[in-house]
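EI: anyone free to look at a 241-residue chain?
SC: sure, send it
EI:
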Amino acid sequence: MGEAARAEVAALAAEGQIFAAHDRAMAALAAGATDDWLAQHAVLTLAQTGALGPALALFHRLGLDRRRDLELAGLGARLRKDVALASREPADAARAFAAAFALWRRSTDPWPGVNAAAMALLAGRKRLSRRLAARLLHLPDRGDYWSAATAAEAALLAGEEDRAARLLVEAAARGAEDLRARASTARQLHWEIALLGADPRLVALLAIPMTAHFCGRIPPPGATATLPPAALAAALAGVGF
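SC: here you go
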């Protein structure tokens, strides 16, 4: 039953049918499947719908918080972080910090340390955030987007804006085709920069195109344009979508 349910959940999620994927995973678990993969994806799909609080509650109800698996611990820390970012409550941020810090201590992966520093900042512990980030300024570089982006975040949290700027330029070059990744980093940087009082122009280094949304009346066919083409081109300069 487990393998068939896994395949169905994966297929539904790949098609974007997140609610159906969640329901299928929960049905398999209710039918007696003892499968951490199904439990993990039941939680993940619920989180993807935006129901972060219920997803975190389900994570605990399914007993995933009691597993020793580092991937599951990472899921718990990620959910805590998402809940904290949604609520902006210091208590939620403190819990997210504790989860990320514990994961960092348990693993050999430095990336949770950057999340711990970010959550310390959100919890109002700016000096602790800076101390932790300063220990993470020389992260291993895997040559991918996330290596550069995470290193840039560590530099920003440590107060080294020039270093952060150089790394953001590198991240933008590596992630030239991945707007979703760059947008995710930009969302993180926006609130960190606001809390730190750092230069807001740092976000622009990720080179995310602007989006234009037209909400006026569509002219009928054959109508004379009221805006000259050159003026229209100038108005849309820098717009990617």
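EI: The two ends are 45 Å apart (CA to CA).
SC: 👍
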